[in-house]
């Protein structure tokens, strides 16, 4: 009971930690309930034991006896163990019930919440991009609010799951805590993803609403302004006919122009905002924006053109009325005002949008200057005409001086405006380049941030973790290498801000702030990731170093256990072995904590490492756990063996020590006995004491026999080095025993002789008769003497001792007879008659004892003969059975060919004949054993029965193996015949199939689609037929396959898997590590497998060629009806679904950022982008994009081809300038035109200037559309 309760207590103490999954907890509850039920069953037995113990204690009376104290101690221990087991089992039951409730609630809630979060995430991802109309955006915001309500409703559930998960982590064991923690982290990540998606969507809609409202507000204001301005311009009336009216109209026009010009900035801002809105919308959504915008641009251009035309008409009218001087003064005043305006303009740096506004303002000024070009020319013509009419007069010289002054101021103004134009353009170019650099850095940081955010599980192995850290350090080094660049950009931006006026470069300031924040965030994340990877590497290294150290200890422990000497049966040796094992157990106890820590760390790594590492870590832990359990099990088994060996050795040693001590004391007693003398009374007393000693010696006979038997049993179990020591102990005990027995007999004889010589004839005769009666009684007992060899030998030795005693008594008998003869000569008749009667009784008893001794001697000789015969037969039969078992167990695998199989069948038939011969020996042996068992000594009965059982069971086992072997060989022979027939049939079919495939491959493939489809159908039927034959090939391959060393198998995919037979590695799409690849040695079977692979490869290649040809022809047929508009709609829809911008896609294609992509790279980029298309189709598409046939697709061709509606967009600034110049050229003659050209730029022609400006603006806008005028 103590052992059982101790085992139960250990089972509860070392019970498996509480799991986190309900099914595992239920299994643990079942196990705990089984323990409780077992305890309930043991309760009655416990009460019975306690009651019996109390009865023993009460009967003993004295409580200070060692045995009573031991009983009380064990009883107290039993009660304490019972209470502890009951308490622990109930506590574990309650803990398991609580854990089950929490686990069921946690996993149910977790699954529901994760499903809800997945649906919310899908809903947010499925939202359309922000619209451009405020009403549509408002609808999108309302939809988002509905999602927000669902998110708010989910938040308490998320908190509840996290709280339940924390409670579960407190209840479950250490191995399952990382899994629960990982699921809680996954829940947090899913919640963060949903909330971040919602915040991002909400902010996008707010920004879109703000931009849309701003755009429509500006649009409405401009429309209202245009209505008022057009009406006001229409009400200016016709040109006046008198000077005052014309002057008044000029003033009104100037006033009107001053009201109109500031709106140029609004028009520019409106076009820019429209461009930003149109970049992220579909053509259908763009129409409501583009149509009113085109109308506004058209009306604005017409209003400006009307102002310029009216100004020209008014100035011409003023000159026609003779107001040259007034017109001249007005023009000079305008020049002075314009120069002042140019001087007041402040430089702006770094912000393209602000510079574009400044450029727009400057365009107003430049347009005004160009508009006054006609007035200047008109004034020059009028002045020349005036000078011609007043030639040679003072007025002519004054007029000439005024004209020269006018032209000089005009050139200065023109140069200053041109210089300002160049400065702004250069500033815009630098700002765009700088802004592009910022955008490039932001995009680069976004890519880096994306890589950092999408962090993969860390490596669980040192190699994987180190490789991850090295790869990350490349990214980190890239960050560090770009640090000077980022800092330089930030410093340059601050310099731009310092040089600009306060509040002018807000966009630049915002971009710099964004860049700085992004840079700091990325650096922080990179540092966090670096720390995380370094920690992961350190943990993986520490874990694997600790694991390797533990594995080394396990190896040494296994080596120690395997090299242990057998348990000794010598007390000193076994005590030394116990002490050594205690030290080893202490070492195991120390490493038990190491194993727990390894399991804890390994479990943590399993849940937070890469999948491929998790498998290896799991396998390592399982292997180490199994080895650890084996070591612990072997150590426990060694402990039990040592305890058992110590118990046996102590039992024998104590018995031997006690007996030898008693024999030594007896030896000393014999040595200290005084001389007998002639006093009859003294001799009688000595004889009486000696009889008491002989009774004690006889009582010790059973102890001696038991001790000797224990020694012999111990000698059989003991290792070889202990056998001589035990034999010496047995010999010493035997010698001492025999010595004491001999001395006792000799002492008895001497005392009887002394008694006889002292005149006590009657007493001497009576003592001899008593001994003979006792011997007769022992010999007359019909006790069996048959049995095993050891028992019979012990009985023979005992009888030999008796015979020696009988021989020594014969001398006493002779002395008694001699004394009787002497007494008969001197005794009277009555005494003589009495003496003769005693001697007759003595002689008859002596003869009877001698006869009984001889009879027993003969019985013992017969028993010894049968025992030796049985011993020899049993051991010969067991030896043959062992050899037979080895032959059958290591017969090897079944052969691959029929000849070897027949040879093995013949050899097995010989074995069966030999077995039938041995069966006779077995029957004789068992018959002899049964015969001996009928007349067996009680001590030998268990041994004889054990031999009978062993022989019968092992014979039946060997017989069953032999019959199974015979049946397997016969079945294998029949299967070989069937397999060979199947092999030949398959080889013939494969040979014909190979020839058919080679003949078909020699023929060219047709171009007709219908014919190709028929060929594919026919070939598919062939493949199906081949697939049906695959099990037969696998059957043949398996029949002739043997396993060889593991090999690294390359992955296979698709239809080619079907070509692998079962004689080859299993079909898989992943590499198989450590797979034992079968080896086929049979030549015909290997030929079949090789032929199968060849035919299968040919079949797959032909199917691929047919399918490729069919796909190619279908693609050609489809390309004949290629519609680029349909392709463009498909591509734009694909881009819209990906929520990507077309310019971003072009930038990905333009790897060297030179604004153009070679057609080959253009096609490859599309094919790599996963866009559903083909190379033939993309070749047609690339030809459409390459409008100028230069072999490249540039940005302009990309945009114009994808957005053909751009043809209806407003003209660019350069196009307006060019149109205006051409209109002015048409009015002037060739001479005046040449002067204008030279004044603008004396180096190039006007057309070249205009075209270069267009190209310059397009390139400097850096993937932005040209600023509309």
UniProtKB/TrEMBL annotation:
Residues 414-441, 498-536, 810-873 form a coiled coil. InterPro entries: EF-hand-dom_pair, EF_Hand_1_Ca_BS, EF_hand_dom, Plakin, Spectrin/alpha-actinin, Spectrin_repeat. CDD domains: EFh, SPEC. Keywords: Calcium, Coiled coil. Residues 1137-1172, 1173-1208 form the EF-hand domain. Residues 1039-1078 are annotated as: Disordered. PROSITE patterns: EF_HAND_1, EF_HAND_2. This is EF-hand domain-containing protein.
């Amino acid at each position: 009971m103590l052992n059982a309760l101790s085992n139960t207590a250990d089972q509860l103490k070392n019970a498996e930690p509480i799991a986190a999954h309900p099914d595992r907890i239920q299994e643990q509850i079942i196990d705990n309930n089984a323990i409780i039920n077992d305890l309930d069953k043991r309760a009655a037995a416990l009460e019975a034991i306690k009651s019996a113990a109390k009865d023993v204690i009460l009967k003993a009376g004295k409580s200070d006896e060692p045995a009573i104290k031991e009983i009380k101690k064990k009883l107290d221990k039993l009660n304490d163990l019972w209470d502890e087991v009951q308490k622990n089992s109930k506590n574990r039951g309650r803990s398991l019930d609580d854990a089950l409730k929490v686990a069921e609630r946690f996993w149910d809630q977790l699954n529901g919440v994760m499903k809800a979060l997945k649906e919310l995430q899908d809903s947010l991802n499925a939202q359309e991009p922000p619209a451009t109309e405020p009403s549509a955006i408002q609808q999108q915001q309302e939809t988002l609010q509905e999602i927000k309500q669902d998110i708010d409703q989910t938040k308490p559930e998320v908190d509840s799951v996290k709280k339940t998960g924390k409670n579960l982590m407190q209840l479950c064991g250490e191995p399952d805590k990382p899994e629960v923690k990982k699921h809680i982290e996954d829940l947090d990540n899913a919640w963060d993803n949903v909330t971040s998606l919602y915040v991002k969507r909400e902010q996008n809609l707010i920004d879109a609403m703000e931009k849309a409202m701003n755009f429509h507000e500006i649009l409405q204001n401009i429309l209202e302004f245009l209505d008022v301005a057009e009406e006001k311009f229409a009400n200016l009336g016709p040109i006046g006919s008198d000077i005052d009216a014309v002057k008044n109209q000029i003033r009104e026009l100037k006033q009107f122009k001053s009201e109109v010009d500031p709106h140029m900035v609004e028009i520019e801002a409106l076009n820019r905002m429209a461009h930003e809105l149109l970049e992220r919308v579909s053509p259908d959504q763009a129409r409501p924006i583009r149509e009113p915008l085109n109308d506004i641009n058209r009306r604005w251009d017409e209003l400006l053109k009307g102002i310029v035309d009216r100004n020209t008409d008014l100035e011409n009218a003023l000159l026609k009325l003779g107001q040259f001087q007034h017109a001249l003064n007005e023009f000079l005043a305008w020049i002075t005002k314009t120069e002042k305006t140019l001087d007041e303009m402040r430089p702006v740096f770094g912000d393209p949008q602000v510079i574009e506004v400044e450029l727009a303002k400057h365009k107003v000024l430049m347009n005004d200057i160009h508009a006054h070009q006609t007035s200047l020319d008109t004034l020059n013509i009028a002045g020349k005409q005036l000078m011609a009419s007043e030639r040679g007069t003072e007025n002519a010289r004054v007029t000439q001086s005024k004209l020269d002054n006018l032209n000089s101021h005009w050139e200065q103004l023109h140069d200053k405006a041109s210089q300002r134009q160049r400065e702004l353009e250069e500033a815009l170019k630098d700002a765009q380049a700088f802004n592009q650099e910022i955008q490039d850095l932001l995009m680069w940081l976004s890519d880096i941030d994306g890589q950092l955010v999408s962090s993969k599980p860390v490596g669980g192995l040192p190699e994987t973790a180190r490789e991850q850290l090295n790869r990350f350090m490349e990214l980190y080094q890239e960050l560090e290498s770009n640090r000077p660049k980022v800092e330089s950009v930030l410093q340059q931006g601050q310099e731009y801000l310092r040089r600009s006026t306060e509040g002018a470069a807000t966009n630049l300031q915002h971009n710099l702030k964004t860049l700085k924040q992004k840079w700091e965030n990325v650096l922080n994340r990179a540092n966090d990731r670096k720390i995380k990877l370094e920690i992961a590497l350190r943990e993986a290294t520490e874990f694997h170093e600790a694991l390797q150290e533990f594995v080394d200890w396990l190896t040494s422990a296994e080596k120690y256990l395997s090299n242990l000497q057998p348990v000794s049966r010598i007390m000193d040796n076994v005590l030394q072995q116990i002490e050594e094992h205690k030290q080893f157990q202490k070492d195991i106890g120390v490493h038990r904590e190491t194993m727990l820590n390894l399991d804890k760390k390994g479990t943590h790594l399993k849940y937070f490492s890469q999948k491929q590492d998790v498998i290896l870590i799991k396998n390592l832990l399982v292997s180490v756990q199994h080895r650890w359990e084996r070591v612990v099990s072997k150590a426990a088994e060694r402990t039990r063996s040592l305890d058992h060996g110590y118990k046996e050795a102590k039992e024998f040693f104590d018995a031997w020590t006690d007996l030898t001590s008693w024999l030594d004391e007896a030896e000393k007693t014999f040595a200290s006995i005084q001389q007998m003398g002639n006093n009859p009374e003294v001799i009688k007393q000595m004889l009486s004491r000696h009889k008491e000693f002989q009774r004690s010696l006889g009582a010790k006979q059973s102890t001696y026999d038991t001790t000797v038997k224990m020694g012999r049993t111990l000698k059989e179990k003991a290792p070889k080095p202990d056998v001589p020591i035990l034999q010496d102990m047995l010999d010493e005990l035997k010698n001492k025993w025999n010595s004491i027995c001999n001395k006792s007999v000799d002492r008895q004889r001497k005392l009887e002789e002394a008694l006889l010589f002292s005149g006590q004839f009657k007493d001497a005769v009576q003592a001899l008769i008593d001994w003979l009666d006792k011997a007769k009684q022992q010999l007359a007992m019909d006790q069996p003497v048959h049995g095993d060899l050891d028992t019979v030998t012990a009985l023979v030795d005992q009888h030999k001792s008796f015979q020696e005693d009988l021989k020594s008594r014969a001398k006493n008998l002779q002395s008694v007879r001699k004394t009787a003869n002497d007494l008969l000569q001197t005794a009277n008749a009555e005494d003589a008659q009495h003496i003769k009667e005693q001697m007759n009784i003595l002689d008859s008893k002596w003869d009877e004892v001698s006869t009984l001794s001889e009879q027993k001697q003969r019985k013992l000789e017969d028993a010894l003969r049968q025992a030796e015969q049985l011993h020899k037969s049993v051991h010969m039969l067991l030896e043959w059975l062992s050899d037979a078992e080895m032959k059958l167990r290591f017969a090897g695998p079944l052969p691959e060919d029929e000849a070897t199989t027949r040879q093995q069948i013949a050899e097995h038939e010989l074995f069966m004949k030999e077995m039938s011969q041995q069966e006779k020996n077995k029957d004789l042996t068992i018959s002899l054993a049964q015969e001996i068992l009928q007349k067996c000594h009680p001590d030998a009965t268990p041994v004889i029965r054990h031999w009978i059982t062993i022989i019968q069971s092992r014979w039946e086992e060997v017989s069953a193996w032999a019959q199974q072997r015979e049946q397997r060989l016969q079945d294998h022979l029949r299967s070989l015949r069937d397999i060979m027939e199947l092999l030949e049939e398959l080889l013939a079919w494969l040979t014909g199939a190979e020839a058919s495939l080679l003949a078909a491959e020699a023929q060219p493939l047709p171009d007709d689609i219908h014919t190709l489809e028929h060929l594919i159908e026919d070939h598919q039927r062939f493949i199906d037929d081949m697939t049906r034959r695959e099990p037969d090939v696998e059957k043949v391959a398996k029949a002739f396959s043997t396993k060889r060393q593991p090999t690294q198998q390359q992955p296979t995919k698709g239809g080619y898997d079907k070509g692998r037979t079962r004689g080859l590695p299993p079909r898989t799409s992943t590499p198989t590590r450590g797979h034992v690849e079968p080896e086929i040695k049979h030549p015909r079977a290997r030929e079949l497998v090789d032929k199968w692979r060849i035919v299968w490869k040919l079949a797959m290649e032909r199917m691929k060629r047919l399918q490729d040809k069919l796909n190619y022809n279908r693609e050609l047929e489809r390309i004949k009806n290629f519609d680029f508009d349909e392709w463009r709609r498909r591509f734009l829809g694909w881009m819209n679904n990906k929520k990507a911008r077309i310019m971003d896609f072009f930038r990905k294609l333009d790897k060297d950022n030179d604004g153009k992509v070679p057609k080959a790279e253009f096609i490859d980029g599309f094919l790599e982008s996963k866009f559903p298309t083909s190379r033939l189709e993309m070749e047609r598409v690339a030809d459409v994009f390459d409008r100028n046939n230069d072999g490249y697709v540039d940005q302009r061709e990309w945009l114009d081809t994808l957005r053909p509606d751009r043809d209806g967009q407003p003209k660019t600034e350069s196009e307006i300038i060019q149109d205006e110049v051409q209109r002015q050229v048409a009015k002037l003659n060739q001479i005046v035109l040449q002067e204008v050209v030279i004044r603008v730029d004396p180096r190039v022609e006007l057309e070249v200037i205009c075209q270069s400006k267009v190209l310059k603006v397009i390139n400097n806008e850096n993937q932005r559309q040209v600023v509309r005028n």
